[in-house]
Amino acid sequence: MENLRLFVGTVCPFCKRVEKFIEDNKIEGVELVNIDENVQAREDLIEKGGKKQVPALDLGDKIMYESLDIMNYLKTKGE
C-alpha cells in the first residue's frame, strides 16, 4: 500500500477504532500522526481538509474523514 498519513487524536475513540483495525489487519504504509502532539500536523490537516476532525486519512489529493469509510478504504486497497 502507498504511504498514507492518518491524522488521529489522543482521546478519540473513532481514531482508536481505526488504529486497532490497522494493527489487527497488519496494514503497512500508514503513518499515524497525532494532531494533539504535533501542532504542525494539526495546521496541515486544517489547511488541507478545512477542519481538524479526526480520524482523517490524507490521500494526497484529498482528506477522507469518518472511521468506517477509512477502514473500508484501507481494506479494499489492501486486497
From TrEMBL:
Coiled coil: none annotated. InterPro entries: GLR_AS, Glutathione_S-Trfase_N, GST_Omega/HSP26, Thioredoxin-like_sf. Gene3D superfamilies: Glutaredoxin. Signal peptide: none annotated. GO terms for cellular component: cytoplasm. It comes from the Bacteria. This is GST N-terminal domain-containing protein. It comes from Peptoniphilus indolicus ATCC 29427. The lineage of its organism: Bacteria, Bacillati, Bacillota, Tissierellia, Tissierellales.
